[in-house]
Structure formats: C-alpha cells, structure tokens
Amino acid sequence: MKCGSWHFSVWLLLSILLFGLLQGGISCASSGPQRIISLGPIHTENIYLLGAEDRLIANTIYCNRPAQAREKMKIGSVMQANVEQIVSLQPDLILATSLTSPALINKLNGMGLNVVRFSQPQSFEQICNQFIQLGELLGLEEKAKSIVGQAEDQVERVKKAVAGFPLKRVFIQVGAQPLFGSVSSSFTNDFIVLSGSENILAKEKNGGCSREKVISLNPDVIIVAIMGSQTGEGANQKKLWFSFPTIHACSNKQVYVIDPDVVCSPSPLTFAQTLTTIAGLIHPEADLKFKK
Fold first, then answer.
1. Can you tell me the distance from the alpha carbon of 72 to that of 252, in angstroms, rounded to the nearest whole number?
2. What is the pLDDT of residues 96-142, one digit of tens each?
3. How far apart are CA 90 and CA 37, in angstroms?
C-alpha cells in the first residue's frame, strides 16, 4: 500500500511538472527577461555577444553592431527615446546608459517598467564587471564569465607581446570640436597603458584640451577615433595633425585613424581586439598575430 502511494505521488508530481512545461509556467526559456529594450549600442552588442538577441525587441538608431542589430525596431536615439513606443512594446527589461536622461528613467520607472542603468565604465575591468552583471540579469552569468575570460586572456597576451619595448607617449583623440582626448578616468586610457605606453593627458581631469597643448606635450603616437573614420572628419584631423611636423608622431608618421565605435563603446571582446590593433599601431615591431 505504501509502495503504491509512493508511485502515485511520483506520478502526480511528474504530471504537475509536465503540465507546467506545456503551459509555459516552468521553462528554461523563462529564466531572465524575455522582452528587452536597449537604449545604447554597447548593451545591444553585449546582448548579441551573449546569444540573447531573440529577446531584444528594440534598440536605438545608433545600435549598428553587429549588422543584424540594424534590423531591430528603433525607439529613438541614445539621448531621446519615444516613451509611448517603449510602453506599447511591454518590455520586461530596459537597459539604460550613462547618457540616458534621468527624467526618462524616472518616467519609465513611474510607469512600472524595469529600468537598469549602467554607468560609463572607467576601465577594462569595469567593462568586464558590467558584462557579467548583464549576464546575471539575463540568466547567462556563466556564459558571460567565459567570454570575459577569453578577453582577459587576449589582453594578457598583448601585454606580454609589448613588454620590453621603449615607452611611447600617446594621444588618443576622441573629439574634434572641441578637441577632446583620452584621460586616466576613461577606459580608453587602458588602451594606452595596456599597450605599454604613457597617456600624455594622464594627469588631466578633463579630456578637453587645445591643439597647442597637445603640440607642447609632443606625443610619439596620435590615434584619431572620431566619427568619420578613414574619410570625412577623421581624415581631416589626420591631415591637420601632419601640418605640425615638429610633433614626433608626425615626423615619425605615426598618426592613425581608427573606427570610433570600437574604441568608444567596446564589449570585453571588442576591447581586447581593439587593444590588439592599437598596440600594433603603437609598436609596429611587436608580434601581435595570435593563434586561436
């Protein structure tokens, strides 16, 4: 009798679990939010990197990495989003950035929506920590940690590859009007430091500076990472720097233009890849062709 009761209890429990699965009440897919809106390119890129793009229902007009992200519904820009459209999409998670208006966040919270804001990371370490935090939010913590591990491994290989080379003084330009450069409080500073080099603006609190100041600091390498890439404003800035031949970077022909998207908004893996590129520009003699 007891044995029969035990079998009946097991059968009943399995029946309840099966019913829950069929009804969607218990599901692996229900782990974490399923309707996500990204208010920034970095969040969009990270969602794809985590393989959770099917949960992304909308993003901004500036979310163009990877290319598939351009096909997602657009709810506005990084600075201005359409509140009515966001509400109509019934998201269960909205990912905000440091550029998201506090008024917008308060308004969305007031409507009962779940908004998580990520601050602007100040280092590669913070980029990795925020990526893991996103993984936790999506129920993909272990995958996030694995990806961070890959990025950290590549960063270490870059550090070893440039170790022992002469120290170079570097200026990374991230703005043109006004002129703006990387400082130590920005994660872009890590592109320089992890390349075994010195940031000429490391002691500055604000990246705003004059061209005369850059000339006086006389960098060995100038890296232009502004909108326009190889053409347009980026190319114009490169040409302008070469009009000052007394700068070491110009006399040594070490003025470069690179994609601002990967410099100014990196995922952990994009950071590692961009670091490899920048380290190669600063130290062209280094062997940075890593085997996978």
1. 44
2. 999 999 999 999 999 999 999 999 999 999 999 999 999 999 999 99
3. 10
CA distance 113 to 72: 20
Task: For 97-123, give one letter per residue: b (16+ CB within 10 A) or e.
Answer: beebeeebbeebeeeebebeebeebbb
Which CATH superfamily is 148-282 part of? Nitrogenase molybdenum iron protein domain (3.40.50.1980)
Q: Where do you find CATH 3.40.50.1980 in the chain?
A: 32-141, 148-282
Q: What's the whole-number mean pLDDT along residues 249-260?
A: 94
Give me the residue label for tokens 């992890």.
194
Phi, psi of 86 (to 5 degrees): -60, -50
Is residue 93 within 8 Å of residue 36, measured between CB atoms? yes
Let me know how long the chain is.
292
89 and 58 Cβ atoms separated by less than 8 Å = yes
- The fold adopted by the segment(s) 32-141 is Rossmann fold (3.40.50)
Residue 193 has pLDDT above 60, yes or no: yes
Q: Are 36 and 91 in contact (CB under 8 A)?
A: yes
Model pLDDT for residues 3-59, shown as the tens digit of each residue? 444 454 444 444 444 444 444 433 344 478 999 999 999 999 999 999 999 999 999
Residue with tokens 């550029």: 99
What is the token pair recorded at 220? 């060995």
SS3 helix, strand, coil % of the chain, rounded to 5? Answer: 50, 15, 40
* Listed range (102-111, 162-171, 237-246, 255-264) with the worst mean pLDDT: 255-264
Owner of token pair 């450069």: 181
136 contact partners, CB below 8 Å, separation of at least 6: 144
